Every structure is written in structure tokens, then in C-alpha cells.
Amino acid sequence: MSRTIDRNRLRELQAREEERFARAHPRSRELGERAKGSLVGGVPMTWMIAWPGGFPLFMDHASGARVTDVDGHEYVDLCLGDTGAMTGHAPDASTAAITRQLARGITTMLPTEDAIWVGEELTRRFGLPYWQFTLTATDANRFAIRLAREITKRSKILVFDHCYHGSVDETVATVRDGAVLAREGSVGPPVPPAETTRVVQFNDVAAVERALADRDVACLLTEPALTNIGIVLPDEGFHAQLRELTRATGTLLMIDETHTISTGPGGYTAAHQLEPDILTIGKPIGSGVPAGTFGISHEVMEGMFAQADADYIDGGFGGTLAGNALSLAAIRATLQDVLTEEAFARMIPLAQRWEQGVRESILAHELPWEVQRLGARAEYWFSPDPPRNGAEAAAAYDEQLAAFTHLYALNRGILLTPFHNMALMSPATAPADVDQHTEMFAEMARELVG
Ligand code: PMP
Hints:
alpha/beta; binds 4'-deoxy-4'-aminopyridoxal-5'-phosphate
């Protein structure tokens, strides 16, 4: 048996929480009003409008797994900058390395020794032998796609519906009744995405096979599990089939580990022995200092330099600040001292504890909800069954409940990622932080069922 949520009751509770939020955050509200005079939508980047409560919290400072806002409230941070701060905020080792490098020069167009250490360590973790650096995961994906096109001389890429790989033009696409379209709300798509992209559902091997059959796809780009429409796990054997189909059709397999690094020190790729031709990652690898990277196989590197007229200096590949000394010092410290094996050995059990706490409340209140976990990252669904692909996941999304949950959590000192019901553990997260969420969730469930 499971209950449905009474929407009138939900609306009443939402109004109560909004009022509580406004009362508790006068300074954020004041800054939010002032910001409207100079910032688009009153925020430095439009997605910040998505925070619940009617106006965004303004941050004062963040340390470890805690954020403090300008009204003096402290939050347990389970959002962690949507993975950008998975290291925890300002971890000592990174802060020391970053501060040291700041005083020794940020960007000179010259390589530093740190870059070599980092390249070697990335190879040890992910298996791919050669690396390049960017400032964001978006750029890592953009450059890697260009590389795949250059080498294969094919124009199209293949992605899964409801994927997210950053603001990469080719990936902001969806599929409806077999037709590839710009994703709803896509801002100024440069060309109709059907010209650049094929889109199929995650876990649909037959559709992947059909999409690759014409051998005009340069690369298949995917996260190991979808993480941007809730966590959608791959079916048993799905990745092996992707590898087989991409090899059979001369398509490069490109794995984006930006979020799935939650699985362990070498991401899902190492944990499940994936064999991508290209691997991309960004967000937490510099402890929040802008940094992204992509790794390539021997064959891809050979292919790269076999193109006589490809211009890797300014042929649409690169960036002035990419590979700068500060980013590399930050990555080195992060990999050497922060996102270590030992850290994952603490973080993953914490995510299990979080998952268990949520599941107990769901069962106790007979709610038609589900919880899913990938290593140190977990997320709940307001639907009874875990979706198998992006379309199912999108259909199960409950905007009203998500908005309520996030606001309810904020009002009780817990920060969840605005676009997800996601919680991420950092090396600085404590069991008591998890328990605070568990208690909040139990109380929320109790109030919702009345
Ligand atoms: N890849 C994945 C899987 C992501 O989730 C994101 C951002 N959410 C990106 C790439 C892009 O990261 P960024 O916005 O830092 O470039």
C-alpha cells in the first residue's frame, strides 16, 4: 500500500515554509533586492534563481561541510556546489597548496611540474595515458567532441535523453517520437540539433545499435549513470554492450565522470573496468578552483597528430587560462590529499547511512517514493520505482514536492542541490550531519501525510 500526497495540504505547508524563510533571512532578502539593480535576475548566474524560497541565500563563508549565510545561519551542506565542492569547502591541503601557488604566479602560459604529477596520477586512477586541461567540465567535453570529430571525420555525436554534460551545444537535445529536437527551453540553439546529434534512451541497447549503424557518429558521450535527472543506474551489462557497439562501428566511447566520481577514487570507470577512448571530468578535481580535464587513449593521441592540417593552437581547441599553474596546483592537492582512497572509504558509508535513513521514513509512512545511491552520492525520487532512463525519470519529476523539500530542508539548516533531490558526502561530512537530514526528512514525511 502507498499513499498519495494531499496537494492542498502541500500548498498550505509550502506557504508556511515560505513565510518562515522570508522571516529568517532579512539580510539575504535585502541583498537580493539590491542585486536586481545590476545583476540579471538579481544573481551572478541565472540558474541561482532556482534556489527555493523566493530569493537566494547570500553566502558569507563556507568551511568543511558547512555553509554560513549573511544572516548568520549555518547549514549542513549536502549540495556541495553541485559536486564542485565535493572535497568539502576549503580543505586544508588544497588551501595551503592554492595559497602557495597564488603567491608564486597564477598563469604564465608555461607548464609546471605539477601538471606531470597530475597526469601520472590521473592515469593511475582512470587508466587513460594522456591528459589535457581545461577550466570546466563543459570545456573538457567540448574539446573532446571536437577531437572525436577531427579524428573520425564523422559529424554526429550520440547522447542519451536527459543527459547533461554542461552547456555543450551538441548535447542540449532531446528525442520525441524518434525526432531529435532542441531541449525544451534551450537558449538560442546554433543549429537544429538533429544536424549534430542523435539521442536515444539510456539502457536501450537496440536504439544505440540503430543510432550507430550508419557509422556517421564520431563519439558516444555518456555518464556511466545518468546523474542529472536523478540517479539512473545502468542495467547489468549495458556498458559492456556500449563498448562492443562503439568498437564495432568505429565510434569513440567518451565517458563523463564529472558526477560519477562519487563512485570511488577512479570514478565508475575504475570501479567497473570501463574502457573509454576519452574520459572527461571537472568540478571537484581542483577543490573548487576552476579545473577540468580529459584523458585520451594511445590511439586517440595518434589520431590527433595524424591530422596534418589540424590546428591545436587556435583551431577551436584550447583556452588561454587552461592548464594554468593555479588549477594544476589545486588538482594535485585534491588528488594527493583530499579525494583519496581513505576519504572515499569514509564518504561511501555516510551516503549509505543517508540512504538508509531516508528509506526508513519512506517505509514508515508508506510513501510512494524511492531512494537511489551511487557511491558517495544519493538521491530520492517522488515515485515508487527507480526509472531506467531519462524519459521515465523526467516523467516522475514532481516539481511541487521538490520545491517543498528543498525549502523545508533549508529552513532546518540543510542545503540540498537546487535541481536535484541529491545529497553528496564530502571528506568533511560527519555522521551527525547525515542524521540531521534523516530527522528532518522523517519530520517532513510525518507532516506531509498529516
Ligand atoms: N558533465 C556533467 C556530468 C555535469 O553534471 C556537468 C554540470 N552539472 C558538467 C559536465 C558541466 O560542468 P561545468 O558546468 O562545471 O562545466
